[in-house]
Request: fold
Amino acid sequence: MNVSVELGERSYDVVLGDGARHQLAELIRQRAPRARVAVIVTTPSIALQPWFEVTSGIEQHVLTVPDGEAAKALDVLEVLLEEVAQFELSRFDVLVGIGGGALTDLVGFAAATYLRGVSLVQMPTSLVGQVDAAIGGKTGVNLRSGKNLVGAFHQPIGVLCDLATIATLPERERLAGLGEVAKCWLLEGGFAAELADVSLHDLIVMSVQLKAAVVSADEQEGGRRALLNYGHTLAHALEKLALARDSDELRHGEAVAIGLAFAVRVAEALGRVDHSEVLRHDDVLEFFGLQRRIPEHFPTSSLLEAMAHDKKAHHDLTFVLAGAEGFETVHDVDPQLVSDVLERFQGEP
Ligand SMILES: NC(=O)c1ccc[n+]([C@@H]2O[C@H](COP(=O)([O-])OP(=O)(O)OC[C@H]3O[C@@H](n4cnc5c(N)ncnc54)[C@H](O)[C@@H]3O)[C@@H](O)[C@H]2O)c1
Ligand SMILES: [Zn+2]
Reply:
């Protein structure tokens, strides 16, 4: 099935289904008819997957970059761009990213910057990539000073989400992806009891539809797109502190799950929702097998400090919160209240 991201002339489809990867040649033929060369960028471990094969229908070259978050670095970008330059691409040619969210972020940024922008096809193979990272045109790399500090908006000409690739995803990565899926399910008002009849395929479709609708309404995160940051205020703070100790301690989606449980407790403390909303959140997270406990040794004061300095906050405490009018971004939440909720939350069984 296709879900479209509506952005005027730059609109594109997210193709979802088993075997979507086989639509690359057709997509390039339709959306980049003047392309002569396709440079496919992936990682060594993705290239070894049983489902890995690419037919672009035009001259093609496969390049690899380091796996995982290590791909999102300026030195990796430089090496990649030098390699791309060897193929003498024109502005009509295509870069194709095949891999997790880290890979598609890097390749998207390479496509945004090479010749000030070449065509891009994203083929996300992780759950996070399919439901989130590869859709919406946010691309970028990390600095030592922080994640995603350098980037650009660059929309792809198409996103091919092949659900068959998810089968080889390690369990922990799948679980991390479910953190973002749970976020979408909660934003959509879903209950845990309804999840019994819903397949992973349906959940991916639901999440992609939500992201596509939000991006269509608000490409650059002025308003509605910010709702996708639900659970992310605490999540970013947890990730920042975790990164300083052990980069493997918390996957992004795991941090988001904890952040969702926390945000609803902030909403309850502010009198915006009653306790049934907290239970709805906890039940959904539990259904997905997601932990909502903050790992040991995260001091409240450090978390508060990190939340106030989130790049998406404007030096205050900003949360996406549930309320009578649905979800909305709330600025300047009282630090004492947040601190009290955090203390109680950390003490929960
Ligand atoms: N641009 C955005 O809007 C956006 C949104 C959310 C996340 N992100 C970014 O995405 C990144 C996280 O993405 P991620 O969770 O996919 O992590 P990742 O890209 O690091 O991938 C996780 C691991 O899974 C492997 N993998 C991917 N697909 C596989 C498959 N089908 N089979 C076997 N192994 C597979 C990868 O090679 C990697 O080792 C972060 O850098 C985050 O900042 C970007
Ligand atoms: Zn996220």
In short: The chain has a mean pLDDT of 94. The chain has two domains: 2-168, 171-347. The longest helix spans residues 200-217.
